[in-house]
Design brief:
The chain has no helices and eleven strands. By secondary structure, it is mainly β. The strands form two sheets. Strands 2, 4, 5, 6, 9, 10 and 11 form a seven-stranded mixed sheet that branches. A hairpin with a 4-residue loop joins strand 9 and strand 10. 32% of the residues are buried.
């Protein structure tokens, strides 16, 4: 019922910036949490940032200050502004929409971010 489509992943040099977007479509409940997780090869998926529909943001420790999450509730879209990118940021970034009180969680297919030295 819910589809998430990410875009914006690219190859970028260290120190550069990138902006990811994720558009949700289908049957979307108005109260939810959307955000980003990432996974590098051989590593566990980790939190990047999330934001509730009320605007409460939560960031993973590795990306605090450098990354900024935002969302447009009217468009059911969440963004991730990534600045001062480092090679260790290289990963597949997955969009997530979570409705915990309904035990529902949806994932996008991911978008590749590669940061070169």
């Amino acid at each position: 019922q819910v589809q998430l489509v990410e875009s914006g992943g690219d190859l970028v040099q260290a120190g550069g910036s990138l902006r990811l977007s994720c558009a949700a479509s289908g049957t979307i409940v108005s109260i939810n949490t959307m955000g980003w997780y990432r996974q590098a090869p051989g590593k566990q998926r980790e939190l990047v940032a999330t934001m509730s529909s009320g605007g409460i943001a939560n960031y993973g420790d590795a990306v605090k200050v450098r990354f900024a999450i935002s969302r447009d509730n009217a468009k059911n879209t969440v963004y991730l502004q990534m600045n001062s990118l480092k090679p260790e940021d290289t990963a597949v970034y997955y969009c997530n929409l979570n409705v915990p009180w309904r035990n529902r969680s949806y994932w996008g297919q991911g978008t590749q971010v590669t940061v070169s030295s």
